[in-house]
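no rush on this but wanted to send it before i forget. theres a chain ive been looking at and ive put its sequence and its fold in token form underneath. i want to understand how the tokens follow from the sequence so walk me through it. thanks a lot i owe you, the record is right below:
>
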Amino acid sequence: MAQVWRCSGLRWSDDGPVLRWSGGRRSPLGRGKRVAFGVAEAGVRECVGARGHACPTRTPVSGRSTGARCEECARLDRAHSVAADTIADDPRPYHVYLAWFGPGMVKVGITAVERGPARLLEQGAVCFSWLGAGPLMAARRAEELLRAALRVPDRIPYGDKRVVRALLPAGRAERAAEIEGLHALAVALGGWPESLVPQPCQVVDHVAVFGLEGVAAAVGEVAELVPGGVLDGELVAAAGPDLHLATRRGVVVLDTRLLPGWELTAAGGGEDGRLRLPVREFEAPQDGLF
């Protein structure tokens, strides 16, 4: 019987992205690394549970779900979550940040100060700058102020982030320009929470960290994993949860949030670059850069 592994997700460390596996195994993902796996032939994707506890019913979940949880476990997982805005008494200080993902794509968000830039790496932010620091509710009010006064969103769909990565300006100054302009507008707003300390605009650029300089445009993204599917590719870039893999079909993006819940096996024999999974092709933008 073939050995199987269960992926626990991708995390960013000081050395780059790392895939984690049930049992504690870790797989660092340096550029040029071969990423190859198969999906068990008779596999069914099962709910991964919530807050460190297994799903009591091992409920099957959709292959397209990026949460890999049934409705009940998803509810439990978000029941005590800053991201879901279900707690207001977290005593830790929080950063408010501006994150840029590509031309015209800037969002505002918050993250615990103790986490440093981890949240920005996890989201695939190409550039970011801190905007302020203070108590959780003050950070929330500042976030809401920017949404209302400057129409800055607090969410950008991952699908939009993926397509625009091939259109990034080549220069750091060009990539930083939108954040710098928005930062100046934000700190000048009236109604800034008194307990939130403004932070200077210091744009951090992740293009080199993600490996996006000169990377070939992706032709599409893996839509879901399916029983008996195979993916075999060379890692050319990684941003947030996304791995950009060179396959015989071209560069394809794998959202690693699709992996948990499946039993994965070795890819087996065969030529490198195989891809036997559903792929959603990207539409070519108007300027034809793809």
About this structure: The radius of gyration is 20 Å. Residues 172-187 form the longest helix (16 residues). Residues 7 and 21 are 4 Å apart (CA to CA).
